Amino acid sequence: VQLQASGGGLVQAGDSLRLSCVASGHTLRFYTVAWFRQAPGKEREKVSVLTWNGDISYGDSVKGRFTISRDDGKKMVFLQMTSLKPEDTAVYYCAVRLQGKRVFDNWGQGTQVTVSS
């Protein structure tokens, strides 16, 4: 599976953005999908996970503000981000792992999100 993320940009605090990730080669039906982010000088952080069977989890810092979703028919994953804060500034990556695997082993190239105060 090859992944390509898009939708990042420069926004102001309080704005919204919708990130998209499109997969090529395979349907995502049997994949768990996720969004991660990494800010300069910080470790990579798991933002949200949507399992192949529909379970969803969010990192504490984005709960109530971000929403993950998927469209298996279009082989796409989305991250709707609202009430953005400067601390959300990071490169955002989509990743997938096949059902039964424990490691996310397919990653997109990342899209930059910058939130100004």
Q: Can you tell me about this structure?
A:
The protein is mainly β and 117 residues long. The protein contains no helices and 11 strands. The protein has strands at residues 2-6, 9-12, 17-24, 31-38, 45-50, 56-58, 66-71, 76-81, 90-98, 106-107, 111-116. Strands 2, 4, 5, 6, 9, 10 and 11 form a 7-stranded mixed β-sheet that branches. β4 (31-38) and β5 form a beta hairpin. The mean pLDDT is 95.
Topology, element by element:
Layout: E1 2-6, E2 9-12, E3 17-24, E4 31-38, E5 45-50, E6 56-58, E7 66-71, E8 76-81, E9 90-98, E10 106-107, E11 111-116
Parallel strand pairs: 2-11
Antiparallel strand pairs: 1-3, 3-8, 4-5, 4-9, 5-6, 7-8, 9-10, 9-11
Brief synopsis:
The chain has 117 residues and is mainly beta. The protein has strands at 2-6, 9-12, 17-24, 31-38, 45-50, 56-58, 66-71, 76-81, 90-98, 106-107, 111-116. It is built from no helices and eleven strands.
Question: Which characteristics define this entry?
Answer:
single chain; 117 residues; mainly beta; 11 strands; 0% helix; globular
Individual helix count: 0
Got a strand count?
A: 11
End-to-end distance, in Å?
A: 37 Å
- Portion of residues within helices: under 10%
* Order of helical and strand elements: EEEEEEEEEEE
Shape: globular
Whole-angstrom Rg: 13 Å
Oligomer: single chain
Mean pLDDT: 95
SSE-based structural type:
mainly beta
Task: Extract low-pLDDT stretches.
Answer: none
Query: What summary fits the major beta sheet?
Result: 7 strands, mixed
Provide the β-strand percentage band. Answer: over 45%
